[in-house]
Amino acid sequence: MEYLDHGTESSNNAIELQATDPQLIGGLPDDISLYCLARVPRKYHSILKCVSKRWRDLVCSEEWYSYRQEHKLDETWIYALCRDRFNEISCYVLDPTSSRRCWKLMQELPQCLSKRKGMGFEVLGKKLFLLGGCGLSEGATNEVYTFDACLNSWFEAASLSIARCYFACEVSGGKIYAIGGLGSNSSDPHSWDTYDPCTNSWKSHEDSNIVPEIEDSVVMDGKIYIRCGTSPVTGQVYAAVYDPSNGTWQHADADMVSGWRGPAVVVDGVLYVLDQSSGTRLMMWQKERRQWMPVGKLSPLLTRPPCQLVAVGKSIFVIGKGLSTVVVDVRDVGNMGRVMVGSSIPKLISSDDDVISCKCLAV
Q1: Hey, which of 157, 189, 262, 351 would disulfide with 212, CB 3.0 to 4.6 Å?
Q2: What is the structure's pLDDT at 19?
Q3: Which domains can be identified in the chain, with CATH numbers?
């Protein structure tokens, strides 16, 4: 097709060429175009989607997500679910590799979730999940909503088998586990649900080792651990562990549970716990010695408990009220027990939001 230098005919011809050109980038095979475009940093993906419909469809596709994962081009962002003093729920996102790291408010959550309490918050693939929960005037629900990080949109998803609130939520083996919690009168408190993305459905299970009041959970060595509060009778912390290989729950080892008294995160198979009973101190579980070791104390000037933990690579992000954040590199553990020095991200201005949960999502 020949271009003209003037008039409406030139404009119409250009539009016709663009509409009939099947290539992502004119003159390049699509595999080469994908090779180039997939290397664009994640923070610019929203701009790529504005170039053309084909580029938008590509950036939103499973092909794009899989390609970036397969070639180790995916970038991890941190998502924090927060509650303000008016009990309003919101979600913030942080790019930990940005030269000007700061928390940014995500788009508004579905209205029905704005004041819901006790929700599960989890990540599977390129999607965030908000599960269950309850309100002041409503009981527990089985509703599930998902946020697609590539599409940048919220959708209603397959419902839980059982209505739940204040329950544990973890991912293992490519499935979501919703464990214990409080539910409707017909719900079994000794149960858990599993979500299989291949069938887009939930399946319910029961086990007497599961208790409804779960305070924390973590996945370590392919097993799911749940921790409950301290018993007023025995003074002991109850915890159970689930092994997906045989589908059974058992009591967790008492020596490991004894030091699990705060938010936990696993880095390279090592369990770290933030002890907030007196200041903030990072502890590490040494499996070989079967004992807890202090990693270091965090400055009270930087941390604002209660905090949540999340890990990106070798770094642990300690996220407190108002999203004040301290970043600790666990490779620097030579000064056991001393005050730890790490980088920090300032809190949001005029914000004292409580951080309910934090998750990582890579695209």
Answers
A1: 189
A2: 46
A3: 7-70 (no CATH), 107-258 (2.120.10.80)
